[in-house]
Amino acid sequence: MEELLMQHGVKVTANRILVARALEEAGRPLSLTELEQVLDTLDKSSIFRTLAAFKEAHLVHALEDSGDGVRYELCHSHDAHHDDDLHVHFYCTACHRTFCLEDTPVPPVAVPEGYRPESCSYLLKGVCPSCAGRL
């Protein structure tokens, strides 16, 4: 984990390692509230500051999913200036969790002249396999 932080130019601290590990182990994007529950030894402001530093260094992707606000996932790109691992996400309307569809890349989008995209989020909404089995 320390190596990934250093590759993105993020100073390695105990709190940053804890947040990065929590995101890695979750295997799906987490909200600030979910991170607070997982990292009960850290306060909300410490987690938020860490996420802000990670976002600035392109170490996390931040996405809105119609759930409880922004969710964060660890970026496995090895470039501190560009996210080269963008993929589609799926929001389950039944369990309200967001999943990474890592093998489904975000399709390229042509924009009119003069527009300069800085980020892209591609979100599908529906029912996940676990919830579909219960319906």
CATH class: Mainly Alpha
| H/E element sequence | HHEHHEEEEEH
Number of domains: 1
The CATH architecture designation is Orthogonal Bundle
Might you state the CATH topology name?
Arc Repressor Mutant, subunit A
Termini gap? 39 Å
Unreliable segments (pLDDT under 50, ≥5 consecutive)? none
Overall residue-averaged pLDDT value: 86
How does this structure look, described?
By secondary structure, the protein is an alpha+beta fold. The chain has one domain: Winged helix-like DNA-binding domain superfamily/Winged helix DNA-binding domain (Arc Repressor Mutant, subunit A, Orthogonal Bundle), CATH 1.10.10. 33% of the residues lie in helices and 22% in strands. It has 5 helices and 6 strands. It has helices at 2-7, 14-26, 32-38, 44-56, 129-134; strands spanning 30-31, 60-64, 70-74, 87-92, 98-105, 123-126. The strands form 2 sheets. A 3-stranded antiparallel β-sheet has the order 1-3-2. A hairpin with a 5-residue loop joins strand 4 and strand 5 (98-105). The longest helix has 13 residues, at 14-26. The mean pLDDT is 86.
Could you write a compact summary of the structure shown?
This protein has helices spanning 2-7, 14-26, 32-38, 44-56, 129-134, and strands at 30-31, 60-64, 70-74, 87-92, 98-105, 123-126. With 135 residues, it is α+β, with helices and mostly antiparallel strands. The protein has one domain (2-134): Winged helix-like DNA-binding domain superfamily/Winged helix DNA-binding domain (Arc Repressor Mutant, subunit A, Orthogonal Bundle).
